[in-house]
Each structure stands twice: as C-alpha cells, then as structure tokens.
Amino acid sequence: MSAPPALAARELSKRFADGTLAVDRVSLEIAPGEFFALLGPSGCGKTTLLRMFAGLEIPSGGRVEIQGADMTAVAPNRRPVNMVFQSYALFPHMTVAGNVGYGLSVARVPEAELRTRVAEALAQVRMEDFGARMPDALSGGQRQRVALARALVKRPLVLLLDEPLSALDAALRAAMRAELVRLQRKLGIAFVFVTHDQDEALSMADRIAVMDAGRVRQLADPRTLYDAPNSRFVATFIGKANLFEARVAEHAQGRIRIESDALGTVVLGGGPGVLGGMGAAGGRVALAVRPERVAMDEDEPEAARIFVRARLVEIAYYGNETEYAFHGPTGARIVVRRPNAGGGTRPSAEGDERWLSWRAEDMIVLAD
Ligand SMILES: Nc1ncnc2c1ncn2[C@@H]1O[C@H](COP(=O)(O)OP(=O)(O)OP(=O)(O)O)[C@@H](O)[C@H]1O
Ligand SMILES: [Mg+2]
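Above: the input record for the complex with magnesium ion. Below: its predicted structure, written as tokens.
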C-alpha cells in the first residue's frame, strides 16, 4: 500500500456568514514531499482554502485529511501543519530568536530544547548569525526568512505558504524562489504554496491547482497546464494564448473538422488528449495557439500549415523578447513572441503585412 497523501481536501467548501461562497467543493491530494502550488486570480479562494488546511477557518462542508487522518475538527495547534502568512508580521519588540521560539515557549517546550530548535530553524534559512537582531534591523528578504524559520521550528509535516514572496522586490523574489525550492527538497516535507504569479508557480511547483471562483479548474504539472490547458480560463491565465472562437463541423474517426471565421476550416487529428471530451458537431469551441508557436513570413506558407495574412499593429519590447500584435482578416488579434537573441527577419513597422502560420498540432482545442 502506498503512503497516504500528506494533505487532502475532500469536497471542501467555505461559505462565509455574508453568503460569499469562497471555496466550492474542492477535492485534491498533495503527496508527501510534494511542492504544490495554488494559483489563481485575486479573490478566487486561495487564502481561505489554506486557512481551512491550517484549521483557522471552519469548513462549511467536506473534510481535511492529513496523512490519512481526518483533521476537520482538530484545533490549529494540534495539526502537524504550519502557515507562513501573506503579511508575515514579526513581533517588533522581540529579537529574531525570540520571534522564532515564541510558539515553542507558549507550548512550554523546555529551554534547552527550545534553544536547539531555534538554532536549527535559523540555520535552515541561513540566518544563524542573526538571532540577536531586532526585526526592524533586517532587510525584507531576511524578515521573510525569519517568518519561514518561525513556521519551520515546529517541524510541521506540511508547510502552508500564503504568497510569501509578494512583499519582496523582483530580484529578491527570484532569488528566494530558488532558495525555497532548495529548502523544500532538503526538508522533504510537502509545501503548499499560494501565489497569483504564474511564473512563480510554473518555475517552482511539482503540480499546480489553477483556481477560479472557489473551484479548481485544472490540476496538473506545469508542462501539461501550459501545453494542454483544459479551458479558455486556464489557457489565458497560464501564459498568453491567441484564441479563435469556432464551431465543430464534424467529429468522427479521431478527426475533428472545425470552422472558424478567422481561420476558415481547420482539420485536426490527434490523441485523446486533444480531442477527448470534445463536443459533437455544432458545439462551440475555441482554438488556441501560443504566441511563440506562430511563424511570421513574407512568403506564403506551405498548405499543410494553418495560416492567415495579417497586419502588424503594435510592437512591445520586453528586453528578453519582443511581442508583435497583428490584426487578422476578420479583425482577430494575433500575438507573436520572439526572443531578442534569436535570428530571423522581423517586421519593423506598424502596417507591415506578414503571413502568420503554425502547425495544426500546435493548436489547442478548448471546449470549456
Ligand atoms: N471573513 C470573510 N467574510 C466574508 N467574505 C470573505 C471573508 N474572507 C474572504 N472572503 C471572500 O472570499 C473570497 C475569497 O477570498 P480569499 O482571501 O480566499 O481570496 P484569495 O484567492 O486569497 O485572494 P488574494 O489573491 O487577493 O489574496 C473573496 O471574495 C473574499 O472577499
Ligand atoms: Mg489571499
């Protein structure tokens, strides 16, 4: 028998007293040692879900399990989890060591053990030399590390992190990402990491649950979410996508014929991953293609590709890459991205016309 999940939500819901349904029947399992991200727009229920895991919010329905045991009715301080909050306020009148050891002293852990564990937790976040400092004499990144140590000192089985990097500037945030992943691998405990930053989730997590309006829309590893999103919402929330509204004309024998105003008739074959669950003839779908998959050519592309003639309307420079926005024949907006270090001729002036094209297998069909 395999080990039970480190943490599980079973049909977990939260409706607040004012009627707001913040979390709506969420079911998911987080494996021991997994780096798991909850990703979604502001207000989608990420913090509420995390607070139910921690026991700080009482569910309106469903269960929370930790290592296979029902924890729904267990008090927060009796759960083997700990949480790093969105605003990781430290006690300003206590030293770093005092902050980290506070929870243990409340729990009446003997002085000698307390000191050993505080030292261990500070070492884990590479702050062993800062125990005597006061919080206002620390940088933002150092304060963040102390907040982490404060959560780790209780040796939780699962660490819940609510946007722990959001208060840091971009460079520090990038450095802390790598550090958090290293720490998680070293500790071997499950991390549940809340963010609304897709790059953060994609670069750090083993798996990501994409949430919208209290529900999990898709749960998968980063590559699957990007290459095979299951809905318009996920396709546009994770990365950029060009979407074309379309209609299923025929769906038989593993092939699907789709009519779209912008692209005309598109015939796609392919695995069950692409076509599974696709609507029958007459169903509305969207066709999606990622901006980096679109070629820009002066010559007409070969017939096997999907192509449109389009006019450049906007160029946006991003340092590492450039984004070209085109208008297609039916007014469709099509965005193309190219790394600036790459070669190839590029349109340079608004009004330039190009053939935009991509392979049929680069199309993602979205039924939802
Ligand atoms: N105590 C409360 N009473 C009523 N509604 C609440 C309460 N706390 C949160 N909500 C509502 O529940 C929904 C989910 O809130 P939550 O804080 O979980 O979102 P979030 O995904 O963490 O957002 P953000 O990214 O902005 O932190 C929101 O509509 C919010 O206004
Ligand atoms: Mg939140």
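Notes for the reader.
Residues 240-366 form a domain with the OB fold (Dihydrolipoamide Acetyltransferase, E2P) fold (CATH 2.40.50.100).
Residues 170-187 form the longest helix (18 residues).
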